[in-house]
Write a structure and sequence with these properties.
Rossmann fold, alpha/beta, 7-stranded mixed beta sheet, single chain
Length: about 300
């Protein structure tokens, strides 16, 4: 029987079975829990995401793929949904044991023979067309049900681009769609850390000029130092905590992907201090727009 792991728990927080199959959509190469067969797994550890729709989708899928009687441990920080796990699992028909340690709440269940509400939770957390966006999206993806204001600020500021480019941290493709409106764009490489966003972007960016990859952009792709432009709205949270090093890594990756004279267009929250890493990576940096809590930079290599 396969042991399953969803997420990346802190070292020493739980005992992970050797060889457990990783299922997190935020870890490139992990399996997709939605594609696993029913009632085949022997155990599951789930670091539950904080959003209600995403959490219930993941818990329902984990219960679906476990064989009856198999153990599931779901856990989360107390201030990021841990206190609500017991009620969620009881809603699926589970008898829940609970304990707490290291600021996390842990819920332990044996998968009952009869479950309730799985289909509804899976449907509520599944990919769908979001009418507010006119795009495919899924709960748990960044800004999944509304246009991100930072991306809108960048779209509003961008000139007409041309040549070969990339959208780093493309999400579901909102920014890429705007870039592709320019006929002079000949190729656009899109990449994101979230497999769900990548799959939605593949639906949303039905264009022969586009490629979409599931990748960790903290490391520059090999052999990609000849692009004409990069656009990006880099993330600055990792596991819910602010991590300014993420944006700094994206800046270094963008510089590594551009040809000499190529340009990077970046939008960031106004409080983020990206001026120094931009200045170190590019020959010129110009603030092109500011407002609504955001700033847009043009950085030329």
């Amino acid at each position: 029987m396969t042991d399953l792991l969803y997420g990346a728990p802190a070292p020493g927080l739980v005992e992970v079975p050797k060889g457990a199959q990783q299922l997190s959509p935020l870890i490139p190469g992990a399996a997709d829990i939605a594609k696993l067969p029913d009632a085949g797994a022997g155990s599951a550890l789930v670091l539950a995401p904080p959003g209600t729709l995403e959490r219930d989708f993941v818990l329902a899928q984990a219960l679906r793929v476990l064989r009856p009687g198999a153990p599931l441990t779901a856990f989360a920080p107390k201030d990021k949904g841990g206190s609500r796990l017991k009620k969620a699992l009881e809603g699926f028909g589970c008898v829940v044991g609970e304990d707490a340690r290291r600021h996390h709440r842990f819920c332990h269940v044996l998968r009952p023979a009869k479950l309730t509400g799985l289909a509804e939770a899976i449907a509520a957390g599944a990919p769908r067309i979001v009418h507010a966006l006119g795009l495919w999206s899924q709960p748990g993806v960044f800004s999944w049900d509304r246009p991100d204001p930072g991306s809108l600020k960048l779209i509003e500021t961008l000139p007409v681009l041309g040549g070969r480019g990339a959208d780093l941290g493309c999400g579901i493709g909102l920014l890429a769609r705007a870039v592709l409106a320019a006929p002079a764009v000949t190729a656009l490489a899109c990449a994101d850390l979230d497999r769900r966003a990548v799959e939605c972007a593949q639906h949303n960016l039905d264009d022969p000029r586009v490629s979409v990859a599931w990748a960790d952009l903290r490391n520059p792709p090999a052999g990609a130092a000849d692009l004409d432009f990069v656009v990006m709205n880099p993330p600055f949270h990792d596991g819910g905590a602010e991590d300014r090093a993420l944006g700094q890594a994206f800046i270094a990756t963008a510089a590594a992907m551009l040809r000499r004279g190529g340009v990077c267009w970046l939008v960031a929250n106004r409080h983020l201090p990206y001026e120094a890493p931009l200045g170190a990576a590019f020959s010129s940096v110009t603030l092109r727009a500011e407002g609504g809590g955001y700033k847009v930079y043009e950085a030329r290599r």
